[in-house]
Amino acid sequence: PVASIKDMNYCEHKRDGKPSLNDLNDNVLLEIIAAVIQSSPVTERKSRFFDNQDSQKTPFRKFSEVKNGIASPLSLIPRPRLLGPLLALSMTNRRLRHLAAPAIYKSIRIGKDEDWCDALRKIDSIAKCEAVRVHAKNFTMELSIGRTPLEELEGGFNYKGPEPPERLAPELLDTLSSVTKLKNLTLIIPDYHTDIFRTIFEASSASFQSLRTLVLGPHMDWLIAKCPNVEVISTCGWRWLHSAGNCKYNHQHSADLIEAAGKAKRLRHIEIYDSLSEARLKDVYQAVAGIESLAIPLARYQNGIETLLPTLSRFGNLKTLALAHAADLKVGFNPPYCDAAYFGPNGPFFGPDGQMIRKNVEKKRVGAGERVAQMAFAMLPELEELWLGDSSRATVVRTDFDNEVSWIHTPRLKPYRDCWDLWED
Question: CA-CA distance, 107 to 47, in Å (whole number)?
Fold first, then answer.
């Protein structure tokens, strides 16, 4: 941004008689910071919940954004930007560094490629950084510490991998408690070691009053009780489906999460990535009947979406509903699942014949989605927004005579396969 003379506060000392950053007032510096953030590259990591003031929206990602105070599942997900350019610029000026701190320290992540010691080292660094404690709003700890083939061979199936350091759980608790503005927490740790963290957290009287959004791994349902003001609860997708704990086959961890969510008094949105049966969906209703938004993209639709709609219609306040792709809802839309089906005699997948085949499939998908929408909006009188997978969003205008449904469709750029497309990232 170009600053006018009126926006500058000239001081007596200038470098070579030219204005410097110190000559600009805070409003102009904030404009510079916003411009640097906007021009920074977007990360490839697709995360669930972030504030969208300093992020770019990429159409039809998989998870959720909080829009107008209500989480819209499977909606436009803002992806955090790489802040290296802003960090480098902030090092050149003390005032600029102070003004850029909220953006630089807003999101903290301990990634899945790190081991226990890496996580502990980062947590120790966070504990020493006052800027993190003051400005951080998003905290992600997603560890995937698995077994090597040699460990499996030597330890057998029951080998749980290395134990976390004794200091890790207490240090994590102290760090989270010290972040005063924490709003969004993603906590995913190896299944076999969740009891260690549970013991430490439940023995403490600490609670996270400011936290609004929780994204949890398997067997982390006990954390909900520590977040009395939580409004959004989501599970972690692929890791939730492939839990390695004792409930590997009966998915008891989903039942535990539903039960714990029922005690969250302010809950408005829940997102469960599990093959929920009709009976389990009734359990969801019993626990959180008053929610405004529900995402069940992997529910069991073997008998068609019609079998689940009666239970869904009992959610009296439900305004947003996210289901699976239309191809999984048993409504007469069965697209080819093999790449070869989209290769015509004169062109590959993206060639002329392949494009024609894809257009025909897309037309049928739109028709199937329309049928699902008419059923859903007819049976759920309070429903305002319907998502089918990550590429179709329907809204409704209700009249005395009919429901006028409008759509936003994003054509898929590859063949339909199955629900595992959701976890490719």
Answer: 11
- Amino acid identity of residue 23, one-letter, is D
Per the CB < 8 A criterion, the answer to whether 108 and 138 are in contact is: yes
Q: What is the pLDDT of residues 23-71, one digit of tens each?
A: 888 888 888 888 888 877 654 433 332 233 333 332 223 333 333 333 3
Nearest to 37 by CA among 78, 93, 94, 68: 78
* Whether the Cβ atoms of residue 392 and residue 271 lie closer than 8 Å to each other: no
pLDDT in tens, 258-299: 999 999 999 999 999 888 888 889 999 999 999 999 999 887
Supply the DSSP string of 11-71, one letter for each residue.
-S--BTTB--GGGB-HHHHHHHHHHHHHHSPBPS---S---STTSEEETT-SSEEEETTEE
CA angle 269, 199, 169 (to 5 degrees): 85
- Residue 146 is predicted with a pLDDT of 58
Name the residue with higher pLDDT: 229 or 250.
229
- 216's CB contacts (< 8 A; 6+ apart) are 186, 187, 188, 223, 224, 233, 234, 235, 236, 257
H/E stretch holding 260: helix 252-261
- Amino acid letter, residue 330: K
Which is nearest to 269 in space by CA: 218, 297, 234, 241?
234
Q: Which two tokens stand for residue 155?
A: 């330890």
Extract the tokens encoding 123.
């947590």
- Is residue 416 a contact partner of residue 335, using CB atoms and an 8 Å limit? yes
Residue corresponding to tokens 């023995």: 203
d(CA 208, CA 222): 13
- Amino acid 299 reads A
Angstrom distance (rounded) from CA 16 to CA 404: 66
